[in-house]
Amino acid sequence: MISIIVPLFNNIHASKLMYQSLSKTINLDVEIIFIDDASSDGTIAWLKSLEDKRLKFLYNKFNLGFAASNNLAINSASGIFLVLLNNDLEFDSRWLEPMLSILKSPVLNAGIVGNIQRRISDDSIDHVGFELTPQGKFVHKRQLSDSSIEYSKVSAVTGACLAIRRSDYEAVGGFDEGFLNGGEDIDLCFKVAALGKSIYVSQESSIKHHVALSRDLNDPQNEKNSRLLFQKWRPEIKNELGRVWQPLLTSDIAYSQNLDGNLSPEFLSSPGAAARIISENVLAREEHRWSRELDGKDLNANIVNHIAVRGARYNNALLGYLVDDEIEVTLKNTSSIQNFYVCGRKLNEASADRLDITISVNGIQHKTFTLGSDRHINVGIINPILLAGVDNIFTVSIRSKAENGLLVGAGKTVLITHFVIDEKTVNQF
C-alpha cells in the first residue's frame, strides 16, 4: 500500500487541478489523504463533495503548518511507502513509478527520492534537488548534471514531492515541527542521511509546480527556519560548504566571484584547509546576520573596545592620524565582520602621483587600491576572512611610485581620519 499525503491551505483552484491530474496518473494501489489546514476559501466544502474510495480526509481546527499537518496525516496512513505532495502540482504520466523503483532498489540504499520539477508558468526546470551556494544558501538546483542517467544523488530534495518509507519517516521522528513552512524538508533529508541512507532525484519522473503558491517568500519566518536548520546541522553544512569551496580555490576567477580581494599563494597551497576556514567564515557571517535581524542583537556592539592600532600618531592641527608606511590593526574576540574600511585624505591635495594602498587580512587575503588625483581615501574589504579563536590582524600598507618606477613607503603623505569596521566608525585609536 502507498499513502499519498496532501496538505491543503486555501488555493482551491490549484487543489482541484492537482486532484484531477493526480487521479489521471495514478494506477497503483494507493490511499490519498487530504488534510486541510484550516482553509477559509471553500476548500472544506469541496473536499466533502468528493466521492472517491481512495480518499481520506482530515481537518485541522487551526492552521498548523506544513510539518505538523504531514505528521498528523501520516499517523493515520496505512501505507508502507509515503508520498508527500503539495497541492499546487500537476503530474506527467507515470511520474510515481520511477520514484518508487529507486526507493525499493536493494542496491541503492535510498532513504528519500524526489524528482524533476518544472514551473507551470514556462516549463523551465525549477528543482532537481537542493545545493549549497558558496554564500551558504540552500537553493534549488535547476540544471541536470547528466540528462542520460536515471537518477542522481543529492544532499536534499523539496517536500513538494518526495517518497520515503514509513519506517524511515518514523525512525527520524517525521518532520521537525520547530520549522514553519520551510526548511523541514531539508532537515528531514539530513536526518534520513544520518541513518546511513542516500537521497536521490529520479530523472525519469517529472511533475509541474506552481512554486510556493501558498508561501510569502519575503516572510521573516524563512530566516528563522534557515537559522534553525544551520543550528541543527552546523558541522554537516560546514563540511558541505568545504566541498563547495575547495574546487573554487583552484582558480582566481572562480573564487574572486565569491569573495573580495585576492588570496595568498601560501593560503591556496592547502585548498582543503583554506576551504574549511572560508566555510567557517560563511557560517559565522550568517550567525551574526541572524542575530542582528531576528534578535535585534549586534554581536559586535562593543567592537571598538576590541581594537588596537599600531603605526599611527594623532595630529591636533590636521584632526587626524599621521601614519608610518604601514598601519597594523588588531581585532580581538570577533568571529565575523561585514567590512573593514580605511578613510582619510592625501595631505598634498595638488599631487596626482600614483598612491597604492594595500589592505592585508591575516596575511591570507589582500586588496590593492591605486589612487590618482582624487584626494579622498575610502578603501576597504567586504566580508574579510577572519581566523577563529585568535587575534585577527589587518595590515594597511601605503606606497607611492618613485622616479625609478619602484613603489616606496609613502605613509606620511596621507592622513587617516577613521576606520569603518563592521559598519562602525572608529576614530579614536
Structural notes for this entry:
With 429 residues, this protein is an alpha+beta fold. It folds into three domains: 2-216, Spore Coat Polysaccharide Biosynthesis Protein SpsA, Chain A; 234-295, no CATH class; 303-426, Galactose-binding domain-like (Jelly Rolls). Helix content is 28%, strand content 33%. It contains eleven helices and 23 strands. It has helices at 12-25, 43-49, 66-75, 96-104, 166-171, 184-194, 221-232, 234-248, 252-256, 265-268, 271-295; strands spanning 2-8, 30-36, 55-59, 81-85, 89-91, 110-119, 125-127, 130-132, 138-140, 151-154, 161-165, 198-209, 262-263, 307-315, 320-331, 339-346, 355-361, 365-371, 376-382, 392-401, 407-409, 414-421, 424-426. Strands 13, 14, 15, 16, 17, 18, 19, 20, 21, 22 and 23 form an eleven-stranded antiparallel sheet that branches. Strands 1, 2, 3, 4, 5, 6, 7, 10, 11 and 12 form a ten-stranded mixed sheet that branches. It has a two-stranded antiparallel sheet with strand order 8-9. Strand 20 and strand 21 form a beta hairpin. Helix 7 crosses helix 11 and helix 8 packs across helix 11. The longest helix has 25 residues, at 271-295. It is elongated. Mean pLDDT is 92; it is low at 403-408.
